[in-house]
Write a structure and sequence with these properties.
six-stranded mixed beta sheet; Rossmann fold; elongated; alpha/beta
């Protein structure tokens, strides 16, 4: 009997230990923090060329914090090559999702194939790409740029009712980028075959304020009869307005000004009558991006295209003076 006691105690301890382990393992409630997986999103931003872009970056960073997503933010300073490097670094880091705001539409095949091989879904934000295999990205979230161009033209058709001739100069965005291409074609498609409207000059201002001003100076020196400036973003418009005023002309009266984005600075000039129409293009895409990225991180499908709600502000609105602060 004396000899069996240690063996019995040992067996009892073993059984107690197993029971304890069983209850520990089937404990309910949230997993400990260390076990929870925080989604990691690598965001390749194309640059900081405009107030719009700066607002977009700020919004994406804030939305990631709100959503509890770990964001790796890389700004490419307007160089596609830097975006390739950023995407490759995200792949090496094994992020859950890559969010890409592509500077231009062409040239993404190889790097997106590398992301696919690494099993990382890619979400396009803001701009679109032109690629042979569209399955190399999961979806797109951003504005409907074609509609923006059409809205700009619809405003002009209303404004120009009764005008016999409408000479238009266009300062376009970055060559090869989705907004530059679609804002140009939506505008032209809608003006259609009405021969009163003539685009007498079109030049790229790369979405930069400095180039907006420089281009407008050159345009004013070269053309005498300009009725309309159609500018693809507010930054270039603000620069162009400086040039128009330096030439002794009144923007909004001597020249009809149509711009796209809806930055605070442009809305302020709309209220002063120096801009006639602002087509909204919102940079506040952060929450949408985070929602879609989290769904992708969970392995869910997302819509191919998601557009935010946008509107047009113009001198025809009754409530222009009451437009609330824009936040960018
Ligand atoms: O892609 C969106 C465009 O890029 C915005 O209109 C412009 O301001 C930005 O630089």
């Amino acid at each position: 009997m004396k000899k069996r006691l240690p063996a019995l105690l040992l067996a009892l301890a073993l059984v107690l230990g197993l029971v304890l382990l069983f209850f520990l393992l089937r404990r309910e409630g949230p997993a400990p923090v260390a076990d929870r997986h925080v989604p990691i999103v690598g965001f390749s931003q194309l640059g900081s060329e405009s107030g719009w872009r700066v607002g977009n970056s700020r919004d994406v960073i804030a939305a990631a914090q709100r959503a509890g997503v770990e964001l790796i933010y890389e700004n490419a300073g307007q160089k596609q090559e830097n975006q390739f490097n950023a995407i490759r670094s995200f792949i090496a880091y094994q992020v859950d999702v890559i969010a890409l705001a592509p500077i231009v539409e062409e040239g993404w095949d190889n790097v997106l194939r590398e992301a696919r091989e690494a099993g990382i879904p890619v979400l396009l934000s803001d701009r679109y790409i032109n690629i042979g295999d569209e399955s190399l990205f999961a979806g797109y979230v951003g504005s409907d740029f074609l509609e923006e161009g059409k809205a700009a033209a619809r405003f002009l058709m209303r404004k120009a009712a009764g005008m016999a001739r409408v000479n238009i100069v266009e300062i376009a965005g970055t060559e090869g980028s989705t907004p530059a291409k679609q804002r140009a074609s939506g505008f032209r498609d809608t003006l259609g075959a009405d021969e009163r409207f003539r685009i007498i000059h079109s030049v790229s201002g790369d979405f930069l304020r400095s180039k907006g001003k420089e281009n407008m100076r050159n345009i004013l020196a070269r053309f005498d009869e300009i009725d309309v400036l159609y500018s693809h973003n507010d930054a270039m418009t603000l620069g162009a307005i400086e040039a128009i005023e330096e030439a002794g002309l009144s923007p909004g009266q001597d020249i009809i000004i149509i711009t796209i984005d809806g930055e605070q600075g442009a809305i302020d000039l709309l209220k002063q009558g120096k801009i006639n129409c602002v087509v909204e293009c919102t940079p506040l895409l952060g929450d949408l991006i985070m929602d879609l990225a989290q769904r992708l991180a969970r392995g869910e499908d997302i819509p191919r295209v998601s557009h935010p709600k946008e509107r047009v502000f113009s001198e025809f609105d009754e409530d222009v003076q009451r437009i609330p602060p824009r936040g960018y």
